[in-house]
């Protein structure tokens, strides 16, 4: 293993940035109503570093949101997200509730944001049993399960919902349900790859897919034939048949040395694609298929560039 590849592997051990993928997933899930909504990532409260994870504002207050996770929405909707390795605590609830109150009070004019125009959504990977027991026993709230993974917390002037990602129905919330580091459902994998294949140029899908691959990298390696082969099939389609064209050129080449160069280049591109997929660098696969200079740069990075090419 060369040093460049070893460094790339070390780099992958850094902390995964889940929030950009979550922000992308929220927009994918609510895309049916996207024309009616404004999405703000890490909305800052006041001048000090207090940030709401996601703020979703309805353009038209009376318009109903069709998606299951958005039916509770009113005009101003505050969303708190916890990554798969984090948990939703009792104090997290009070922090977000405080953010909602501060957001209301921080408007340009007094009572410009009505209290009845606010909602809170709490999103986490596992059911927060301690928090929910606290809300039932101490706050006297009533917990109502609306459907798989979606709970309404009733009893407050501000509507609150809990979204448990691991419980969501993948047929209804595929991209949120896939935002995990334990992706092992064969049907979900096929669904994700299929939808992604139809949205290759969409930055939201690319952001979400990048995180899915990085967080489940072990399953995309040789040990998990299903995921590895499915992903490779997908990206061989993205390559615009470049490898096959190179092989065809090699067969037609009169000069034996030229043919050998082209064949070697085809082999290198195959190796590069496999390495990039293994490292979860989806954007680089697509860019390399379109930009020959960038492709050469990546070949050099991984020690695959032959002097003959």
Describe the protein's architecture and organization.
- This protein is of the alpha/beta class and 309 residues long.
- The chain has two domains: 3-12 and 183-301, no CATH class; 18-169, Trna Endonuclease, Chain: A, domain 1, CATH 3.40.1350.
- Helices cover 46% and strands 15% of the residues.
- It has twelve helices and seven strands.
- It has helices spanning 3-11, 18-29, 90-105, 129-137, 174-177, 186-197, 203-215, 225-238, 242-252, 256-278, 282-290, 292-301; strands spanning 37-45, 50-58, 76-81, 118-124, 142-147, 150-154, 160-164.
- The chain has a seven-stranded mixed beta sheet with strand order 1-2-3-4-7-6-5, sandwiched between helices.
- Strand 3 (76-81), helix 3 and strand 4 (118-124) form a beta-alpha-beta unit.
- The mean pLDDT is 83.
What are the salient characteristics of this protein?
309 residues; 15% strand; 12 helices; alpha/beta; 7-stranded mixed β-sheet; Trna Endonuclease, Chain: A, domain 1; 2 domains; 7 strands
